[in-house]
Amino acid sequence: MDEVNSIGLIIRLRISLVRERTAGVASVLRLLTHEGDDMRSVYAIVIVALGFSVTTSNRSAVAQTAGTAQSAPRLTADDYRGFMKTVGSTYPSMQKHLMGGMTAEAAKEAQTLATTFGNVERFWMQNNKADAVKFAQDARKYATEAAGAATAGDAAKASMAAGNMQGMCKQCHGMYREMDPANPNGFRIKPGVIAGS
Ligand code: HEC
Questions:
Q1: Which pTM value belongs to this model?
Q2: Does 65 lie in the same domain as 106?
Q3: Nearest-10 crossing angle of helices 103-126, 155-176
């Protein structure tokens, strides 16, 4: 019985809400329509259409937010090492190509760096390290600059951007990287920096 009663209440509330809205629209229409019945129906259609599009766009925004949160899996320290290995081999190769004037190859590599630093940025966002996020964003910005200059055949300008990018490697490594005692030739994220390490 209780359930039936509360459903009844909800339905009554809904109906009174709809009535209020209808009354609101009607009074707006009364204000707007000196022109007569034709204009009245035009306004009514416009108002109903606006209300509908606002409702549906809100819904899809919510759905999108939920979808993004679910489709972004948490990156691990192993994923991160993979990104750094990519960066660690791509960066010197790009430098070599720039020195040799092979800008088309360098442009591709700079693009790979930009994409990889996007992942690096995501990792640090997930671990709430704002300064590391900023280093990664700047590195990505310089990589994108290098890609643009190399695409245009400007090796000197691309090399300048590459030099700025290297400044970001150094700053971030100084704060967040150390030698890995378990692997004398390798590195790791400093202990305690990310949860569970
Ligand atoms: C936002 C921070 C950050 C930036 C920017 C960054 N690194 Fe790293 N890098 C790290 C951290 C932290 C590690 C340690 C993680 C590991 O090795 O597992 C690392 C590890 C490395 C490694 C060792 C990977 C291995 O085998 O363990 C190399 C090589 C490397 N980085 C190269 C670079 C180069 C080159 C750049 C710039 C073009 C760069 N990194 C930019 C944070 C950064």
A1: 0.71
A2: no
A3: 30
